[in-house]
Design goal:
Number of strands: 0
Radius of gyration: 18 Å
Structural class: mainly alpha
Number of domains: 1
Order of helices and strands: HHHHHHHHHHHH
Helix content: 40-55%
Length: 264
């Protein structure tokens, strides 16, 4: 039987000294973390024409990354360039939009379809507002692309806190994509590499989530063993908050297209 540490991609080894602000599994500077999050955020979005047009930019974004994050991102970029794009789009929908294990909404894993998730969404939204940002009402604030964009373009440490709070679900997503042989596994593995090495309580949380699944107050689903992996998470839009009236100097949370240094 495989060791739980091996399943989670862990090895007992000497702890790396951080190069930047964050404690990461592999030594990374703050700029490298931002580059990794920028690339991962773009690459886990739906593979539309706009993403395909960004691939040359992404080549430059990831060039300075260490082997582990760079290789996973390069593999995904290569697939987007060479594989049948219509098949990839269909696979994307099947992977992320129809299965709970592929959910990209971080608080779903840690809170399930419960009232606690509404509070978790509010807390994330308040973190954005504290940074002077407003979240678009067409997306929930816990979507992984939003959190990564927030960290890469605005508040590195605050975004890392959100990711660590929802670490178990992120690791379960990584394991799920690895098990499926998904081309998107490299992007999620890159994000996990920018977080601390999993230890004791975090490992237990991943194992518990894998065994039991997220909570569900309204439907009462028991873990992932009953077909619930084929059911998308509930729409939590009612828990969102309406943005206050925007003043002339108020910042709006915008996509990473506009980040400095990434344009050709």
């Amino acid at each position: 039987m495989a060791s739980p540490l091996n399943l989670l991609g862990l090895k007992r080894k000497k702890r790396n000294e951080p190069l930047g602000t964050l404690e990461t599994q592999i030594p990374l500077t703050d700029d490298q973390v931002r580059a990794a999050w920028t690339a991962a955020s773009w690459l886990i979005d739906y593979p539309g024409e706009d993403l395909l047009e960004r691939l040359p930019i992404l080549d430059r974004v990831i060039i300075g990354l260490p082997d582990r994050p760079r290789r996973g991102l390069e593999a995904l970029i290569s697939a987007l360039r060479t594989d049948d794009i219509m098949e990839l789009r269909s696979e994307y929908v099947d992977t992320f939009d129809t299965r709970r294990r592929g959910c990209l909404y971080l608080t779903y894993f840690s809170n399930g379809d419960t009232r606690r998730r509404g509070m978790a969404l509010l807390e994330i939204k308040e973190r954005y507002r504290a940074a002077g940002l407003e979240v678009s009402e067409d997306e929930l604030p816990d979507h992984l692309t939003y959190v990564l964009e927030f960290g890469a373009g605005h508040q590195l440490v605050e975004a890392a806190k959100i990711l660590r709070t929802n670490r178990a679900g992120l690791e379960l997503l990584r394991l799920h994509l690895e098990e499926k042989g998904s081309v998107w596994h490299g992007a999620i593995d890159t994000v996990c590499a920018t977080l601390p090495t999993l230890q004791g309580p975090d490992i237990e949380a991943v194992q518990r989530l894998a065994a039991e699944g997220p909570e569900d107050e309204l439907v009462g689903l028991d873990g992932y063993g009953d077909g619930s992996e084929d059911m998308p998470p509930m729409d939590m839009t009612p828990y969102g908050t309406s943005p206050p009236g925007q003043s002339g100097g108020e910042k709006v949370f915008v996509p990473l297209d506009s980040l400095k240094g990434l344009r050709s």
